Fold this sequence. Notes:
72% of the residues lie in helices and 0% in strands. The protein is mainly alpha-helical. The protein has one domain.
Amino acid sequence: MRRISYFDWLRAAAVLGVVAYHALQPFGSIGWFISNTEISPVLTVIILALSSFGLPILFVIAGASARFALQRRSPRAFLVERAQRLLVPFALGAIVLGPINGYTIGVFNGTVSQSFLEYLVAYPGIVIDFQIHNFGLSRLLLIAVHLWFLGALFLYSAAALPVFGFLSSPRGHILVGWLSRLARWPGAALLFALPATVPIYAFFASTVQPQLWDSWSLGWFAVIFLIGYVIYSDDRLVAAVRRDLVPALVVGVLGTAGLALTGYAEWGATPQQYGATYFLMLTLFGITGWAWTLVVLGVAMRVAAWQRPLAARVGEAALPLYILHVPVVMTISFFVVRSSLDFWPKVIVNLVLGVAVSLIVAAAAVRVGFLRPVLGLRPSADRAARATQAVITEARA
C-alpha cells in the first residue's frame, strides 16, 4: 500500500484543529450546544473559515486512502477493515458518549434536572422520540454525536465500491486521463469545486430549515470523498493540486469574506429564505470549502518535515483524539462559560484546557489494550509481537 507521509501529518493536524474548533465554538455566533453569553465577531470568522475545510480535508484523505487500500485488498476485505475501524467506534459513540453529551447539554440548557443515572435509563426513549420526529439519515447518524463522521465514511466506502470499480476499468481510466489533461491548465484544480457544489443544491431542497451538517452536507462530503479518490488516481492531478496553491488561496480568502457578508455565520440560528442571497451563500460555501481544502493540501505537500514519516504513536492517537474529545471539551466549556472570567480569558482557558486534556485522555486511552479495538486501533506493536512469538513457540513445540 502506498504511504504518503504528509497524509499522516495532515490527518493529525486536522483532528487537532477539530478539537480547537469545538473549544472555540461557545464564543462564536455559529450555533453550538454550550454557548457563552458574549460572542466575538473575530472568532466567528475564524470558526466560519475552519468549518468550510476542516472535515473536507479528512474526507479527501479518506478517499485517497480508499484508492490505495483497494490496490492491495479485495472489496470485501476493504469493507471488513473499514467496519472494524469505523463502525466499532461509531457504536461506542452511540452507546457511551451520546448519553454523556446529552446530559451535559441538557443540564446546561435547563432541560434536564434528574441525576445522570436517571437520565441514562431514560436515554433510549429520548433517542427514539427524537428519531420519530426528526427522522433522516443525518439525524440517524447523529445518534453517535460527532462520530456521525465515522458512520458516514463507512457508508460512503460501501456505496462507492461500484464507482471505484468503474474508475479502475478501461473506461474509467479514459475519464481520469481526460481530467488529468484538463488539469494542465493553471487553476484547473479549482474546477473540482463544481461537482462538489452540486449536492448542496440537490439536497438542500429536502430541508425546510437547513442546518450546517444536514442532508445536503452528507451529499457534499460524499462527492469530496470521491474527488479524493480520483485525484490520487493520477500523479498529474496531484501535481495540479500542488501547483494551484496561490489561486486557491485567493479564492478561499475572497469566498470567506463573501460568506461573512451574506450572513452565513447565522446559518444554524436563523430560518433561511429561498432567494438570490441564499443561493449565493450556498454557492460560495461549496467553492470556498474546496478552495481552502486545496490550500491545506498544497501547503502539506510543500512542508519539508511532513514528507518524512510521522511518529507511529502520534499518528495512531489521531483517531482516539477525534473520538474522545467532544465530551472532554464540552464538559470543560460547561464550567468555563459559567465562570466569572472576562471574555478573552474564558476563550484562552477553554481552548488550552480543551486541547490539553483531550490530548492527555487520548494518549492514555491508546495505551489501554482492551480500549484499542473500540477506538478503531489494531493491537499494540508489543502485544502483536508477543502474540506472534507465542505462535512461533507453539509451532516449534
